[in-house]
Amino acid sequence: KNQKQFLKNKYKINSPIVIIYCARFIKNRNSDLLLDTIEIMKNDQVEWIIIGDGNYKPNFNQYGNVHDFGAIYDFNIKTELFNIADFCYQPAWTGLSINEALAYNVPFITLKKSKKIYQCVEYSYLIDGYNGYILSNIYEVRNTIKNINNDKLKMLKNNCYIYVNKNLKLEHMVSKFVYGVESIFKSI
Q: What is the pTM of this model?
């Protein structure tokens, strides 16, 4: 707790809830929904950390509760920012951002896959209510974040750790791949 407060002071982040977005801004990520979520939460006690650049990056200058770091390639800075975060949010096309957030024990929030919301295979790593949330719309995102209690948040963070160690370690993923390849050859 002391380290988290030290880092929040270092980066001038004062709100009790901190949400991180860490990804390139590409078309399928629906950055308009990120901006809409920030807009509806602008009066809440929430601050946002934005890591990333790209052709579809919105302008966050109008929001005093958004800390836009642009592209970050320094592992230490990125680690510090993830250690401040309570949630990682990406409305769509989550990709490897899920792996990264869960590895930092940061619960991931995204929107349900639909005709408008595209998702990647990593979307399947999320278990709604266990290591993050898969929600229907940005208003559910707001309500979920606003109504989280410390015990539930602690449980989600712990479940991220458990899930990564059980399913996303390199050894596990390699053995799963090898098993899949062997199964293919056995069926031929």
A: 0.89
